[in-house]
Structure formats: C-alpha cells, structure tokens
Design brief:
The chain is an all-alpha fold. Helices cover about 60% and strands about 0% of the residues. The chain folds into 2 domains: about 1-55; about 60-120, no CATH class. It has 6 helices and no strands.
Length: about 120
C-alpha cells in the first residue's frame, strides 16, 4: 500500500462529492419546471455563494496586495521575487462569473525600466 495511492487519497472522494453536487444542481435548474428552478435558485445560490466566499477567504491578500495562499505555494523557490500576477482563485472566480477581467489585469503596468526608456525616447 502506497501513501499517495489515488484510492486512499482523501481529496478524491471529496472532489467527487462536490462535483456530483454541482452536477445535480445544474441538472435540476436546467431540466425541471420553473417552480423547481426557482426553489433551487432561492435555496442553493446562497449556499454556493458562501462556498465561493470560503474558498476565496483562503486567498486573502497581505499588506502588499499579494495572495498569501498562491505566493506560498507557487513562489517559494524564488524567495524574495514576487511577481505582480493576480491570484488564480480570484481570476477563475471572476471569469466563471462572466465579468471578464479589468484592464489593469489584462494590460499590467509597464515596468520601471521600460518607462525610463520610453521617456528617454528609445
């Protein structure tokens, strides 16, 4: 028996339960009459919103505006180098909600050295 064996991993059953629940909700909202769809919307949307808030709470920002969860996992090997990329959890949530991304994320500010070159006429 290996420790990392997929059947023994606690995440796989939890992920399967969550996926099944989301599929059931999607199916219920799409296939039933309007009363059932309204009931699902009234009772399940607040639950889904709280679940999303709980996930995003783990991705809070530090004093510099960097995600403490993503920075700890993705950038540990770079020590003091912290890129100015947005938190993946917030980007995924924003895209899934259909709002798109604001211009400051899709077109990040220029680095200082590029601004100096352009100011010098290069």
């Amino acid at each position: 028996m290996r420790v990392g064996h997929p059947e023994l991993n606690i995440v796989n059953p939890l992920a399967a339960i969550v996926e099944r629940r989301l599929a059931d909700l999607t199916r219920s909202a799409a296939t039933h009459d309007t009363q059932v769809a309204a009931w699902v919307a009234r009772h399940e949307i607040p639950v889904l919103a709280e679940a999303l808030r709980a996930v995003l709470a783990e991705h809070r920002t530090d004093a510099r505006g960097r995600c403490v969860a993503c920075r700890g996992r993705r950038w540990r090997q770079w020590r003091n180098r912290h890129p100015s990329v947005p938190c993946r959890a917030y980007v995924a949530a924003r895209l899934a909600l259909g709002d798109g991304l604001p211009a400051e994320i899709t077109h990040p500010a220029q680095r200082r050295k590029h601004r100096r070159r352009r100011a010098a006429g290069e």
